[in-house]
C-alpha cells in the first residue's frame, strides 16, 4: 500500500483517513487550490453540477436529514440556537449559496470550515444594526466596492417599487445622479 504524503497541514487534513474529518472530494480539490490574493483575501469558488462525479450525485440523492435534529422554524427559534450555526442549508447561512436555476454551489469561504467562520448567519449581522461597507465586505467575503454596487442596485429597486405605489421621500442620495 502506497503512503500518501501531505506537503501542508491543509493537505494533511484532506488526506486523513478519518471519515468524519474528510471533506467532500470536490471541496477538497478546491481547498488544495485556494490561494490568497495580494491583499490576503481568498475569493469564493463555485462548484458547477457538471463537475460532480456520478458517485457524488448518487450519494447526494441518498442523503437524509437526521431525525433527531430539530431545525428552527422561525427567527425566534434560531436566536437561541448554538453558534456557529450548524444549518448550512439555511438561506441565511453565509458559508455557501446555491443557485436555484443551475444548481451551482458557491463556497463563500473555501479556505474555512463552518466552525472556523466568525459570522455564520446573515440575520445575526442584520440584528446588530448598521455597519460599514468594509465590515459587510469582510463578513460576506466581498470587496467594499461590490457591496456598494449591490447596495445601489437594491436602493434602485426599492425606489422603482415605491414609485409604482406613490411618492415616498428617501433620505438616500440618488445613485443615478452624479
Total helical segments: 7
Strand percentage, roughly?
5-15%
Shape: globular
| End-to-end Cα distance | 67 Å
Order of helices and strands: HHEHHEEHHH
Class derived from helix and strand content: mainly alpha
- Rounded Rg: 20 Å
How many domains? The number is 2
Integer average pLDDT = 81
Number of E-type strands:
3
- pLDDT < 50 runs, ≥5 residues: 1-19
Spatial arrangement of strands, main beta sheet: 1-3-2
Report the biggest beta sheet as strand number plus sense, adding barrel if it closes.
3 strands, antiparallel
Fraction of residues in helices?
25-40%
Could you give a short description of this structure?
With about 180 residues, the chain is mainly alpha-helical.
What does this structure look like?
- With 178 residues, the protein is mainly alpha-helical.
- It has two domains: 97 residues, no CATH class; 36 residues.
- It contains seven helices and three strands; from the N terminus they run ααβααββααα.
- The protein is globular and about 55 Å long.
- It starts with 8 loop residues before the first helix and ends in a 13-residue tail after the last helix.
- 6% of the residues are buried.
Amino acid at each position: 500500500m502506497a503512503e500518501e504524503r501531505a506537503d501542508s497541514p491543509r493537505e494533511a487534513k484532506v488526506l486523513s483517513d478519518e471519515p468524519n474529518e474528510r471533506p467532500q472530494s470536490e471541496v477538497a480539490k478546491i481547498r488544495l487550490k485556494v490561494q490568497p490574493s495580494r491583499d490576503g483575501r481568498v475569493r469564493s469558488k463555485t462548484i458547477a453540477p457538471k463537475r460532480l462525479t456520478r458517485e457524488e450525485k448518487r450519494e447526494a440523492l441518498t442523503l437524509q436529514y437526521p431525525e433527531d435534529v430539530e431545525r428552527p422554524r422561525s427567527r425566534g427559534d434560531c436566536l437561541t440556537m448554538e453558534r456557529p450555526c450548524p444549518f448550512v442549508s439555511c438561506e441565511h447561512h453565509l458559508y455557501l449559496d446555491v443557485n436555484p436555476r443551475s444548481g451551482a454551489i458557491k463556497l463563500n469561504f473555501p479556505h474555512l470550515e463552518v466552525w472556523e467562520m466568525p459570522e455564520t448567519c446573515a440575520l445575526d449581522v442584520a440584528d446588530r444594526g448598521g455597519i460599514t461597507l468594509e465590515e459587510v465586505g469582510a463578513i460576506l467575503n466581498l470587496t467594499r466596492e461590490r457591496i456598494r454596487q449591490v447596495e445601489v442596485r437594491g436602493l434602485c429597486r426599492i425606489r422603482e417599487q415605491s414609485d409604482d405605489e406613490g411618492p415616498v421621500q428617501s433620505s438616500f442620495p440618488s445613485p443615478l445622479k452624479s
